[in-house]
Amino acid sequence: MKIVAITSALLLASVAAPPCIAKEPAQEVFLSVGDQTMTTSGETPGREARTYLLRMQSDLPIVFSVDADNSACSLEIMKASQRGVFSKISRFPASFRDSGQSGDEYRFSFFQNRVSFMSGARCAFSFSLKQK
C-alpha cells in the first residue's frame, strides 16, 4: 500500500511540473578584418539575460567597449577556450581587450543586477567590437 501511494505521488508530481521554457539562443555578432567597428545596443528582456556570441575568424586582438546603466546592469564575458567566467564587469563604461585566436568563441551576457531584478527594471546597454 505504501509503494502504491509513493508511486502515485511521483506520477502526480511529474504531470504537475510546469513545462520547460526554451530560452532564446545567443545572437551571433560578426567582425570584419580591418578598422571597422561593429556597434550594437539593446536591453535585457524581463528577468532574463541577453547573450551575444562572437566567433573569431582570424588571429587578431579584439577590443570590446561597453556602456550600460550602472544601477541596473552586469556583464559576464566567457571565452570557449577557458573554463568559467573570463571577465565580469559591473561598472560602466568599461573596455576589454584580448588577443583573439582564429576559431575562438566569446559569449557576452548582459543581465540585471540583483536590485533591478527584484524591481523588474530592465538593463539597457550598448557595446562595440573592433579587431586591431
Structural features, described:
- The chain is 16% helix and 42% strand.
- The chain is of the alpha+beta class.
- A 5-stranded mixed β-sheet has the order 1-3-8-5-6. The chain has a 4-stranded antiparallel β-sheet with strand order 2-9-4-7, with no helix packed on it.
- The chain contains 2 helices and 9 strands, in the order H-E-E-E-E-E-E-E-E-H-E.
- It has one domain: Jelly Rolls (Sandwich), CATH 2.60.120.
What would a concise description of this structure say?
The chain has helices at 2-16, 114-119; strands at residues 27-29, 37-43, 50-55, 61-68, 73-79, 87-89, 94-99, 105-112, 124-131. By secondary structure, it is α+β, with helices and mostly antiparallel strands.
* Architecture per CATH nomenclature, i.e. the level-2 architecture: Sandwich
Secondary structural class: alpha+beta
Mean pLDDT: 80
Predict the CATH topology.
Answer: Jelly Rolls
CATH first level: Mainly Beta
How far apart the termini lie comes to: 72 Å
Question: Major sheet, described briefly?
Answer: 5 strands, mixed
Strand content: 35-45%
Helix content: 10-25%
Helix and strand sequence: HEEEEEEEEHE
**Molecular shape:** globular
Number of domains: 1
Number of helices: 2
Rounded to the nearest angstrom, the radius of gyration is 20 Å
Which blocks of ≥5 consecutive residues have pLDDT under 50?
9-22
The strand order across the widest sheet is 1-3-8-5-6
The total strand number stands at 9
Signal peptide: 1-22
Keywords: Signal
